[in-house]
Amino acid sequence: MHSQAGRQVIMYGALLVLAVATTVAAEEAEYRPLGKVDVGRVEELYHIADQLGDSLWPGFDVRRIPIGINNMDKEELLVAHPSPPEGFVPYSEFPIENQTMHIMDGCTRYGPRNGGWAVEVGGVRSAYVGTKADGLPTEDYISLIIHECFHVFQRDYREMADGAWGELPELDTDYSSLLALESRILHAILTDTTGRDIRETAKMFVAVRQERREDLPADIILSEGEEEYNEGTATYIQARMYELLARNAGIEPKYPGTDPHYRGFESADSLLQLMLGRILPPPGFVVTFFHSKYNHGMALGLVLDRARPDWKREMSEKGSTQFGLLEKELPVTDDEREALVRAAKVKFRYRDVFTEQERLITARTDTLLQFLEVPGRRYRVFISELPPPINWKPHGPVYKVPSDLMYEVDDRLAPLIGDYEPIAKSNHGPTIWLGGIEKFEMAGLRCETKQVPVIFRMEFFEWIDPEPAEDGSDLMLEFASRDGDVYSDLTMTTDGFVLRVPKAHVVQTEHLVAIYPQGPW
């Protein structure tokens, strides 16, 4: 119990529940200052893009896209950024010809580790990646950067469709099984080495997808198409790069001395085959759209290369999708669809797929409900209005909770919580950090927990105390001052976590405490 002088303390009693999501915290790598090898990898990206030109995508010029490299949050390099934010200074130690370069101590946003984002840096959309992780092949790292560069490009290439939002069902056996059937058909098309015409099998795919979508609302179908454009075409660019380089057994590296592990994509064909293998969902997992939007979107691009070669120019139209173009190229009548679906189910062993998905979904639902229905106390901390940077690190594994299951649980809890707040809408759904939060920082907000489960959603996190004290002594608010429901210099302490925020609006019900951090930031 905190007892700082001059601070006021309030204790609350409360009661409630918890949830689940997927990732394991990576070990921190040893810090190494940015240097010639990091710059050399960007130069190789430019070298490859120069070789491939518009054969990757018409008008896609990586040299015009700002690239940020975050080195373990300790320093950040900006390449080709038109107006670096305050704190950056010119970087000339290892210059790239015809490109501006800047560096700063610290970072504009925390992370990412072993990955990347397309985000704003200094108000300009940029490809933002971490430094290459130990063990990650240089070719894969260059592929990651080009993926994020394409995310920046695609926003200008095509305007997003209006009203594209919706949650696809994730714990529905029919839906997941048909999604898995789509995976098998796409994989068969792209790995067929017989030279046969792909159009017949591709029509089978069109029929199966139409069957899966038959009862889906229009906004959800639109959302699926947008996500396949968003993540699918960026993933397609990676596969297309491998495919083009594989035809020529890679390229001659321009700077082979900077990176002893770089071989100029001489293994491009193997890398392509690995990507094609990912079209098939991993065995033993429920098939979800999170998997398919990357891999089906990528596969549809490769199929269109074969069936409708000028498809990329057509994709610049607002609302255009890879599947929509395939439907135009290979129209299917209602009578044809029924026969094609039957044939696809036989050819690709749908009964086996359905039996496996039914077993996996039942087991997954039972497991998640064990977490979701644990009695305890729920805390909500709304973070949607807080600016970057974000710095977070979980204890132990993280698991995704399908939103449809979370909505079901939320509906049951609604009489306890009340209706003052709408359910968060996120295509990624809520997640559970089973080991709790080692560190979460955003602007002035800081949270540290013991190793107890935490729900994290797009807009807030929730923590469950499975054994709350009857007198509420394990929930305490300390603050420097208070004006109604607005607290300054607030610390919330429980037996599971400590949350600190400079200023927050606090909403209390009998069963819930919700904290809304407030600016200015």
Throw out a few tags for this protein.
6-stranded mixed β-sheet; 12 helices; 3 domains; single chain; alpha+beta; disordered N terminus; globular
Written description of the protein model:
The protein is α+β, with helices and mostly antiparallel strands and 521 residues long. The protein folds into 3 domains: 8-18 and 375-517, no CATH class; 36-157, no CATH class; 173-233 and 258-361, no CATH class. Helix content is 37%, strand content 21%. It is built from 12 helices and 21 strands. The strands form 2 sheets. It has a 15-stranded mixed sheet that branches. A hairpin with a 2-residue loop joins strand 19 and strand 20. Helix 3 packs parallel to helix 7 (289-307), helix 3 (173-191) crosses helix 11 (350-372) and helix 7 (289-307) crosses helix 9. The chain is globular and about 75 Å long. The two termini are 29 Å apart.
